[in-house]
Amino acid sequence: MDMDEDLKVLRDYLMFTVPHVTVLAGALLGVLLIMGVQVNTALGIFTVFYGLMLFVLGLVIGPHFSKVLWYRLMMVFFACLMLLGVALLLYGE
User: Fold this and answer.
1) CA 42, CA 47: separation in Å to the nearest integer?
2) d(CA 62, CA 60)
3) pLDDT-flagged residues of the chain (< 50)
4) What angle do CA 88, 58, 33 make, to 5 degrees?
5) pLDDT digits (tens, 9 = 90+) for 43-67
6) How high is the pLDDT of residue 48?
7) Which residues contact 81 (CB under 8 A, 6 or more apart)?
8) What three-state secondary structure class fits 24?
9) Could you tell me the pTM of the whole model?
10) What is the rounded distance in angstroms from the CA atom of residue 88 to the CA atom of residue 48?
């Protein structure tokens, strides 16, 4: 596999998996809001859960794409997403 083919496979993988995770995390957010959880708390839980699920998806394909720059940037973004959720939970009032 050359680098262009790796990027195509990574793109296709993300196109078929990320929407499912987004729907699952969005459903969690909806349930939390219906239950009456404060908006900042619900958003913090949503962001941590969404980032964690995306990070796990990234770890699954890590052995195949660890050398690709876009994969590494994607994993950093997913980790930052989880940290943002933790910050929302800790400092959101």
Assistant:
1) 9
2) 6
3) none
4) 35
5) 999 999 999 999 999 999 999 888 8
6) 97
7) 47, 50, 51, 54
8) helix
9) 0.89
10) 9
How far apart (Å, rounded) are the C-alpha atoms in residues 24 and 8? 25
Q: What is the DSSP string of 25-92?
A: HHHHHHHHHHTT--HHHHHHHHHHHHHHHHHHHHHHHHHHHTT-HHHHHHHHHHHHHHHHHHHHHHH-
Lookup: tokens for 15: 């196109």
CA dist 14 and 70 (Å) reads 12
- Token match 């195949």: residue? 64
- Cα–Cα distance measured from residue 11 to residue 81, given in angstroms and rounded to the nearest whole number: 20
From the CA atom positions of the chain, what is the Rg in Å?
15
Burial group, residue 84, by CB count within 10 angstroms (0-12, 13-18, 19+): middle
